[in-house]
Amino acid sequence: MPQLIESPQEAQDTITGNIGLSVFEFFSNWCEACNKFGDDISEFEKEFSQIKFYMMNVENSAMKALMKEYRICAIPSFIFIEDGEYKGIVQGADVEKLRGALKEWVFGPEENISGSCSSDIGLKKLFTDLETSEENIEQTEKEIPTKGQA
């Protein structure tokens, strides 16, 4: 079972203190999809023993700043932190998408080309997409004429 992080300070200490890859799940007790992930996360802990898994309950109002910092807009959401640095996020209750992302992170994209994970968006591609999304938004905003320019 993943360790429950109960305060922003504990989260920050855990994030900055970990070496290697860590996955932090943002969840809520009332979220059915989050509750269904329990067994899957336990499986992932065994399958990907080199990854540390943690949980943060979004019902804890002290976690609101972390949710904003990591742009959590759906639960469950899983942020990937490597050596204290944010690497990306998988949002939503798609077990196979998360499994595919974990496989790609651990084994590289070549290991993620067969079986049920072949159609999953790769984690590294997902991270690249996230990194460029703000640039794309800024570019689109520049290309769309404002009301006075049209």
List keywords for this structure.
globular; Glutaredoxin; 5 helices; 150 residues; 5-stranded mixed beta sheet; alpha/beta
Descriptive account of the structure:
It is a single chain. With about 150 residues, this protein is α/β, with parallel strands linked by helices. It has a single domain (about 5-140), classed as Glutaredoxin (3-Layer(aba) Sandwich), CATH 3.40.30.10. The chain has helices at about 10-15, 30-45, 65-70, 95-105, 125-145; strands at about 5, 20-25, 50-55, 75-80, 85-90. Strands 1-3-2-4-5 form a five-stranded mixed β-sheet, sandwiched between helices. The model is unreliable at about 110-130 (pLDDT under 50).
Helices and strands, with pairings:
Layout: E1 3-5, H1 8-17, E2 21-27, H2 32-47, E3 52-57, H3 64-69, E4 77-82, E5 85-91, H4 95-107, H5 123-143
Parallel strand pairs: 1-3, 2-3
Antiparallel strand pairs: 2-4, 4-5
Helix content: 40-55%
β-sheet strand percentage:
15-25%
Q: What is the CATH level 1 assignment?
A: Alpha Beta
CATH topology: Glutaredoxin
Biggest β-sheet strands, sense, barrel? 5 strands, mixed
Question: What is the CATH homology-level superfamily?
Answer: Glutaredoxin
